[in-house]
């Protein structure tokens, strides 16, 4: 059996364990809406088996099999109705497809897990082709058990990894590779938005590899933007109010416990103030843009030193800035970062520390919610639950700062598999530039 087959088999086992972990919250009986009973909410927090997939079965018309966005909208209080979900359109379609032939939240969880499993397997295969044995970090990594079926994130991770695979393993011209990669990032934008931030470093890579190729860089931007528009326009035309409601929901989202970001845990006493919430609408995206600009600038300095723009490392650093500074930091976002641990050669200590902090945050937040809801003592001095949560939240935040720097100074594991002919070509190009 080939190494890639073993890798995919291990990933399948891990995905099965991830499903089994979440399935502990389903059944054993169901009410008239197909919601698991008894004590669904209590069990999901107490037993740390909560998933957004199961939770959103009721409340978004998913259980009624309403096709998303075509009808519906958002109320003054921020409630969505008429089939609208708070995700970009392709994720909304996946949600609808997963609910199409089921009538309970347990069936929805299972069908959604089966629908997303091929994306998780594809990521394993692509990472194995790119970085060989380091792909085990994805295949047997704890985040895949914790979050594979927590939300609908495997397809968007697949779009981002596929873009890297196309750029570095497809034997075609730079123009064709970068155009297809940009299309994949555009599809990622239509799934969960975040792959769109990788378009800029890809543009800079194409610009520098092509010898100040402005047309190539603009083609990347146009391909990504055009793909995003092409996917979204039909929904906007079919039901503009419902389509726009998903974006409005995110723009109006307040910093609160559900966002689980450093902004909440650092300023939780201020979250009830409308002035603070308005300021977060400016401060959070503003700081994210600063982090993006800093990452791209450091990447440019490295290009001037080495002759190659490190677009993968810059993308990884930009993602760290996004995760740290965005208003929302959901637990499953660890899946977004996990492939970069495979693709970029950072020290194992960084990876191990992040996985430990993430596990502490994941288990801590749900156990803490359980204690709060049951009226039990839940302060930092009352037990290890709150302590683990704080270790997770602030340890993860500190590690994201460190990883931002570590990614920008590291080499990729992809470069280690570059052929000698390609290496000599890159070296020659760099020497010519410097001699010139």
From TrEMBL:
Organism: Saccharopolyspora aridisoli
Bilayer-spanning residue ranges: 80-101, 108-128, 152-170, 182-208, 220-244, 278-303, 309-326, 333-366, 386-408
Coiled-coil spans in chain: none
Gene Ontology molecular function: any one: hexosyltransferase activity
Presence of keyword Cell inner membrane: no
Keywords: Cell membrane, Membrane, Signal, Transferase, Transmembrane, Transmembrane helix
Membrane disposition: Multi-pass membrane protein
Localization per record: Cell membrane
Recorded family membership: Belongs to the glycosyltransferase 87 family.
Listed name of the protein: DUF2029 domain-containing protein
Any one Pfam family match given in the protein's UniProt record, by short name: GT87
One annotated Gene Ontology cellular component of this protein: plasma membrane
Signal peptide segment: 1-18
InterPro entries documented for this protein: GT87 (IPR018584), UCP010361 (IPR016570)
């Amino acid at each position: 059996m080939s190494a890639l087959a073993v890798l995919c088999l291990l990933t399948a086992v891990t995905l099965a364990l991830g499903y089994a972990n979440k399935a502990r919250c389903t059944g054993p009986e169901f009410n008239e809406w197909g919601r698991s009973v008894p004590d669904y909410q209590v069990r999901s927090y107490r037993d740390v088996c909560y998933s957004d997939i199961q939770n959103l079965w009721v409340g978004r018309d998913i259980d009624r099999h309403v096709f998303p966005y075509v009808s519906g909208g958002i109320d003054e209080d921020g409630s969505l109705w008429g089939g609208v979900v708070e995700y970009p359109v392709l994720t909304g379609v996946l949600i609808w497809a997963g609910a199409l032939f089921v009538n309970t939240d347990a069936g929805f969880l299972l069908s959604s897990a089966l629908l997303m499993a091929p994306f998780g397997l594809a990521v394993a295969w692509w990472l194995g082709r790119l970085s060989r044995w380091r792909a085990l970090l994805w295949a047997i990594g704890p985040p895949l058990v914790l979050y594979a079926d927590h939300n609908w994130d495997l397809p968007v991770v697949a779009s981002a990894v596929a873009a890297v695979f196309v750029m570095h393993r497809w034997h075609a011209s730079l123009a064709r590779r970068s155009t297809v990669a940009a299309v994949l990032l555009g599809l990622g934008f239509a799934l969960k938005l975040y792959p769109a931030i990788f378009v800029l470093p890809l543009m800079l890579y194409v610009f520098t590899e092509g010898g100040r190729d402005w047309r190539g860089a603009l083609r990347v931007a146009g391909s990504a933007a055009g793909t995003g528009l092409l996917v979204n326009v039909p929904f906007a035309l079919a039901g503009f109010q419902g389509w726009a409601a998903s974006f409005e929901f995110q723009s109006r989202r307040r910093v609160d416990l559900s966002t689980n970001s450093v902004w909440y845990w650092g300023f939780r006493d201020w979250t009830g103030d409308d002035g603070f919430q308005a300021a977060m609408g400016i401060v959070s995206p503003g700081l994210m843009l600063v982090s993006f600009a800093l990452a791209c600038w450091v990447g440019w300095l490295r290009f001037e030193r080495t002759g190659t723009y490190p677009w993968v490392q810059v993308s990884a650093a930009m993602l760290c800035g996004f995760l740290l500074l965005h208003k929302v930091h959901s637990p499953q976002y660890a899946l977004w970062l996990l492939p970069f641990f495979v693709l970029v050669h950072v020290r194992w200590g960084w990876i191990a520390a992040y996985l430990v902090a993430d596990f502490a945050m994941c288990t801590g937040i749900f156990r803490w919610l359980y204690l709060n809801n049951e009226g039990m003592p839940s302060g930092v001095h009352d037990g290890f639950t709150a302590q683990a949560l704080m270790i997770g939240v602030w340890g993860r935040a500190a590690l994201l700062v460190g990883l931002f720097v570590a990614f920008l100074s590291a080499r990729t594991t992809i470069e280690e598999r570059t052929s000698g002919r390609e290496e000599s070509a890159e070296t020659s190009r760099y020497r010519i530039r410097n001699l010139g």
